[in-house]
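REQUEST FORM: STRUCTURE PREDICTION
Request ID: SP-0412
Submitted by: Lab K.M.
Chain count: 1
Length (residues): 348
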Amino acid sequence: MKKTMKRMMALALAGLMAFSMAGCGKKEENSIKGERVRFILGAGSTSGDTYLAANVAVNYLNNKLDLKGKIDPIGQANALQEITTAKFADNNTMMIFHDNTWLSVVLGVYGDEYSLDNMIVGPRIAESKGSCFVVSKKAPYSNLVELADWMKDNPNEIVKVACESGGSSHLAFIGVYNWMKEDYGDDVASRLKVFVAGSTETKYQALWDGNCQMIFVDLSTAEQYTKDGVEDQIAVKVAGLLTGERIEGKEYPTFAEQGVKMGDEPFDFTKEYCIFFTKDTPQEIVDEISSAMIEIGKDENYVKELNDQGYEVHVISAEENKKHMYEKRDIFAAVLKDAPSLDTLTAQ
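STATUS: Completed
RESULT:
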């Protein structure tokens, strides 16, 4: 009887050890499935374009990998600080943001410690050709050319543009400023001033209150204010899209067709939303998220959901996106190396 009991206990212990080792083996696979993930956003708004795109992507990733992913919109400064210094094992931190990630470093707003080299570039989740400048419907101009002509005819008028330093709005402002300077002269260009505003809500409120005359936003938030029936106080007109070609089915003018250039080429900038990882994130997890996004990008429901909000979906892998983003960064860095500081162009 005692021998039987000993044998049973030995078998039970062996089974327990085998189960424990199997569990350890699973952990060593570095899979993110079923884990809690904190997706920090480089934007602080829950109504802006970054949040809208991230919300869709995270919902699909949660379903695909059984994640418990939560979005945390902590803003650009905090997000860059965390993604370049946090340890992945602490709380499975990933960042979702767009080209401002590298633009802010290229434009000198953030130091090299926040460069792409200090994080891992993950897959692209969506694109937007809707980055644009909008003006009030009540304004005596509807696009950039009409704005510049109006400024030329009204030499005492100053036009304040709501944007923020170190991002795509900074890039857009420099493009328009240089174009005005070249085509309309210093007098007109010198009266185009920066009105510093961060969140999408802040920019709209500044426009509605008359504190500025043009704002940089995304079409995904602007179109609701372009529709018939919107009261004049909040209605807007799209003065120019950053993308090189018009969006199919839309009548909004582009920077390029109005003569705005970036260097010697017509202005053409598409905002790309991506996942970024801390530098110590295991390659297996980067690959797992990347592969999941590739599959999600083929899902008609995912594509439609983002299309309906004004985004395009051309998901590419982490490996392909890293090569693409580094090349894009280097091209714009060469063009922007002599760009004026926004500090010198800010309205007092």
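NOTES: The chain has a mean pLDDT of 90.
Reviewed by: T.R.
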